[in-house]
Amino acid sequence: MHSLDEFAWAKLATLDQAQLRRAPVMTARSGIWVERDGRRLLSFSCNDYLNLSQHPAVIKAAIAAAEQYGVGAGASRLVTGNHPLYAELETRLARMKGTEAACVFGSGYLANAGIIPALVGPDDLILVDELSHACIHAGAKLSGAQLYRYRHRDVGHADALLAEHRALHPHALIATDGVFSMDGDLAPLAGLTAIAQRYDAWLLTDDAHGLGVVGGGRGSTFAGGRADVPLQMGTLSKAVGAYGGYLCASAAVVALMQTRARPFIYSTGLPPPVVAAAIAALDLIARQPDYTGEPLRKARLFARALDLPEAQSAIVPVIIGEATAALAASKRLEKEGLLVVAIRPPTVPVGTARLRFSFTALHPDAEIERLAAIVRDCVLGRALS
Ligand SMILES: Cc1ncc(COP(=O)(O)O)c(C=O)c1O
User: Fold this and answer.
1) Choosing from 209, 237, 298, 330, which is the catalytic residue?
2) In this structure, are 161 and 180 located in the same domain?
3) Which of 54, 133, 230, 333 places its Cα 20 to 30 Å from the Cα of 112?
4) What phi and psi values does residue 98 have, to the nearest 5 degrees?
């Protein structure tokens, strides 16, 4: 056997042993329903929180853009890939987030891999919430800045790290999920903005799961009064239902990204139909703030039925512990016609494998009550009261 394949098989065998191997499963999606292995399942594992990926107005916009501009951008935005729809998308994003400007990237992951190293380098300091998304950790590592992970949502710990290290570095960045992707809780933005100001540190929030869901649809910055967050990044792939990443910030920072963020410079622009779809979806979000409250209302219904802590976003985790047990719980729900994917390390810390429930505006309340009853019976092992 070629040494390369030997290496790959050995790695895979180790992962198999720990039940940590993952592979994509063929899934056909139609609204809140999915088809897997010939079975129709009700899905609670999709980030299309407002179901906009399949909204007729969004689809229509994508088709019109494909007809007018084609399906590919053809080049990086700094070459010839900057088709006219980009300006409209960026204007809408900036308006929604209340910033001077916005900059669209190829994806949310690429955005953080580009933004962070464009702002801080090896002489600088970066503090990251330990449960932040992998792309924040990737951006932090790529930057070469001195990295400290503070305990989850622990402003006191971040404060102590700044007190100890800030003076040694010309610039400092604090980076956190606005809504934590695997836990559904919110970053303590009031506390973080206060320490950012005190130590002259720049605060970046990743609002992948906040836009369209909390703060009247405007995201986590607007969830508890307006927080002063100079770097609001996120993705267009979840509640917006399309694809792409963004940064909303000052005009100066956005201009810097356009000339220094490597994924912006060295990657082809997004396909025009995707940009058009995002514009149409943002339009719907801006015009229907009440509708954006629906996923959170559903998540709260579920959490309340199971006596879990009150949901703060569309995401509700039920922590199981070991990866094997989480997989078994997921399989058990699948038998009942429910798709709830088990989340295992390294996506979550070892010993905290879980079922991650995500709720969308279209999940009927009755189905959520049924789900809660099944989870109570089959996963938590508690009898129905
Ligand atoms: C918090 C967070 N940030 C960033 C991303 C990456 O966004 P994208 O899918 O657009 O790469 C995700 C999820 O995929 C996420 O959950």
Assistant:
1) 209
2) yes
3) 54
4) 70, 35
pLDDT in tens, 61-80: 999 999 999 999 999 999 99
| Ligand 1 site, residue 159, Cβ cutoff 6 A | no
Ligand 1 pocket member 109 (CB < 6 A): yes
Q: Are 118 and 254 part of one and the same domain?
A: yes
135 lines ligand 1 (CB under 6 A): yes
- Using one digit for the tens of pLDDT, what is the confidence trace for 305-362? 999 999 999 999 999 999 999 999 999 999 999 999 999 999 999 999 999 999 999 9
Q: Is residue 9 part of a domain?
A: no
Query: How far is ligand 1, taken at its centre, from the CA of residue 208, in Å?
Result: 6
Residue 112 Cα to ligand 1 middle (Å): 9
Q: Choose, from 43, 53, 143, 181, the residue flagged as catalytic.
A: 181
Radius of gyration for the alpha carbons in the chain, expressed in angstroms and rounded:
21
Q: How many domains does the chain have?
A: 2
Nearest residue to 108 via CA among 232, 22, 195: 232
Element (H, E) at 319: strand 315-321
Give the residue numbers spanning the domain of 205: 56-287
| CA distance between the termini of the chain | 58
